[in-house]
Amino acid sequence: MKTYGKLVALIVAVLVVGMGAYAEAATDKTVSVSMTASIAGVTSMSVSPSTMAFASTGADAFATTPTGGKIVITYASNYNPWKIDIYTNNTQVPKMSVDPVNGKYSKGGLATASGKSVVACKWVAKNPASAAPAIGTIGGYNFVKDLNDEDDPITTAYDESWAVPFAQGYANIAFGSGTTGYCVDPTKLTPPETKYRGEAITNQVAVYVAGLFATGGVTPAVPASAGDYISTLAFDLYHE
Description:
The protein is α+β, with helices and mostly antiparallel strands. The chain has one domain. It contains 2 helices and 14 strands; from the N terminus they run H-E-E-E-E-E-E-E-E-H-E-E-E-E-E-E. Strands 3, 8, 9, 10, 11 and 14 form a 6-stranded mixed sheet that branches. A 5-stranded antiparallel sheet has the order 1-2-12-6-7, with no helix packed on it. The chain has a 3-stranded antiparallel sheet with strand order 5-4-13, with no helix packed on it. A hairpin with a 5-residue loop joins strand 4 and strand 5 (118-119). The longest helix is centred in the N-terminal third of the chain and has 22 residues, at 2-23. It starts with a helix and ends with a strand.
């Protein structure tokens, strides 16, 4: 036992000396090797239906307008992050700075050919398997923005132009990475969802759109003016 004890002590002493020598080692030279890789971006997107008709001018609810209830977007993207936004480009609606009588600060939605009358549209995004949002005309939705929207100087609390709301994500209906995705649902205001983050989605998102024909989106209600309204609803799949 005595001899064994000495042997153990000797081994420990050697280990301590070895560790000290390693800690004090000086690097003589470092050689680096660069590494590169490239993965091509792959994106696709389609929409159904390609045309929607607002048949009832008295209904502002998502579940009844338009007929068929929803627009289904099928997408694919391996970017991180990717986003999908919604907007119109009603260039025929006069700018307020050019035509203060017929011009509009907010131009999103449906517009007549002359651009003198505009019907605002609201939207909610859902997982395609989810039920249609059973909400009316007050809250729980985002407005369809237009690329030509201008800031209303009277509403100083926020900027209604296109650039600022776009940068803040107001026009986004979905977002995610190459492997995950979520719809943007303005009805989701409480946990477990983060604000406006809706259900998880994989390769499809459903968008419900309603025109504010009966109320005009204001209180007291101001019904839309008579006329033929038409517009193109655009969706961009983009990445940052």
